[in-house]
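Title: Prediction job returns without error message
Component: structure pipeline
Severity: low
Priority: P3
Assignee: unassigned

Description:
Job completed but the reporter wants confirmation the result is attached to the right record. Sequence as submitted:
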Amino acid sequence: MTRGPTLPAHRPPCLPTPLDAFNAAPDAEAGALLLHCLHSLRWSRRIAEHRPYPDVDSLLAAADEATYDLSPTDLTEALASESLPDLPGDTYSAATTALTAAHAAYEAKFGHVFVIYLGGTPPEERLDRVLEGVYSRLENDPEDERVTSVDQLRRLAKGRLAEKLRGAGNCATSRTQPAPGR
């Protein structure tokens, strides 16, 4: 018995990835996305100027490296746009009061909002992690805390960038890697 010609295997269409769209976006659009993630105009411009990026990991490495060239004013700008992490809606009022008091003490001592990267922390553990972090970091001297805050800021920014720019659609490679720290 003779069979007819075999049809080629069906391949899903290759859609642009979020990174492809970012690389091709107008400067203002790319800058707005970066500013949303990085909270510093200079940091955002520096990353936008080096487009295109071959992959998300290269962009994340560039964002990380760029923090070392930021001035104290740039870092203050980025920290000023941060806020306390969202906590579960059913957080009891005593815990919210404790967090508010701890954060007020932190802000009075260091002059900026407390920042902490919670990537991979289950929602039910966030409050404990934030309280533990703020209480332990209140013991830091201002310079040590500045270094710790910048590290946490860097991790937060990389997590936001990874979340925005990793995506399916590239047929050549898998883009399902987790964001840094997750």
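Comment from assignee: result matches the submitted record. The domain at 18-165 is CATH 1.10.3330.10 (UraD-like).
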